[in-house]
Amino acid sequence: MKVNRYLIFCLLLSSGLLFGQKVDYDPIFELEDYNFVLGTQGIGGKYQFTNDSKLVEQAKHIRSMGSNILKISLGRNTTKSYSLKEVKANTTLELFKSIPDFKKVFDMDFKYVFAWVHTLTDVKWKNRINKREEQDLYNEMFELATYLLKEYNNSGKTFMIGNWEGDWLLHSGFNRNMTPSKTHVKNMTKWFQIRQKAIDDAKRKTEHKNVEIYHYVEVNLVLKGMQGKTCISKDILPKVDVDFVSYSSYEAIKNKSYDEKKNTLKGIFNYLEGQLKPKKNLPFSRRVYLGEYGYHANKNKPETLKTQDKETKEIMQIALELDIPFALHWQMYNNEYDKNTGRSKEMSLINEQGEKRPLYYLHQNFYKKMNAYLEGYKNENKAYPPSDVFRKKALEVLKAL
After folding, report:
1. Does 10 have pLDDT greater than 50?
2. CA distance linking residue 304 with residue 140, whole number of Å
3. Residue 106: count of CB within 10 angstroms of its CB
4. pLDDT tier, 180 (very low <50, low <70, confident <90, very high otherwise)
5. pTM: predicted TM-score of the whole model, two decimal places
6. 270 Cβ partners below 8 Å, 6+ apart?
7. Rounded CA gap, 41 and 237, in Å?
8. What are phi and psi of 267, to 5 degrees?
9. Judging by DSSP bridges, how do beta strands 69-73 and 112-116 pair with one another?
């Protein structure tokens, strides 16, 4: 019988048997109440080392690393990707309430919580969105937003609710060269409009203080829009009163010099902001951010590891220079493997052996130094520094690491 070695490898990864069951969390240090800009995420996971779920385990690592930013998945396939118990849920809030681990990580002292939220209703928006389906989508998002505002009232938390790489949802088969149909464009526009209205209404109708929730649309084929071709940034964003735009940036950051990356990202962010309707009372100076970035490496080729570290640090620097509110590295645990060999693409901060990689320590050292700076600045000035002062210091710290 022919053995599928890659399948066996993945099963061992998912069970934790390949690399043992224990990995240490670093000691928690208290964080200043500030936006550190640079973060990571824990979407799914192919391995784990503790009795915690993959969701909780990654959240604990992100927090013990020193980040106050968490990004997770909260969708139809979430229970499978985190190896959580299967539950029957017809809305996102039902799913959230059915699995205690979701609330466990939301209750942790993260200042910013990002969540991929699509829909657990039976609505297939590509086909149609009739009146009943519009109401179902609206109710689902309104109920989730209302719950978060009430449950985390006066917590100081900011929730960012949005979608995974939207242009792949719009383009069939991950084919960037296809032209999405007018029907699909129209329906996706309506889907985003409904979600935004539900969140805006929830904020308006729910008494709350010191807690915020915003809706973002994530895009990933912006260069196509800049060329005048059909995609979210060109055809949908101008029609949606969205709060923020997340950019999954791989098309813009691969195989480029530092200057090329910075100029490309600068042009993309300016273009995206030009597509947005004006909106008041938002907390950051810019409404676009890096929702995903990261680089592959091969541990058998040491030069690729050095390049990965260098290019990651460059994106962190560019994010600070361009004054975007967030730049989220992909990710705490690796979930990308070569289809033929099963080789890890080494995109994690902690690898399959439970080892904290240099990129983990790059983030951790940045947080520790910036946290100490913020504490000292606040003690001396009785207030935190303005954003431009923080970023100037952050660039100095990052370059020295």
Report:
1. no
2. 44
3. 21
4. very high
5. 0.94
6. none
7. 25
8. -65, -40
9. parallel
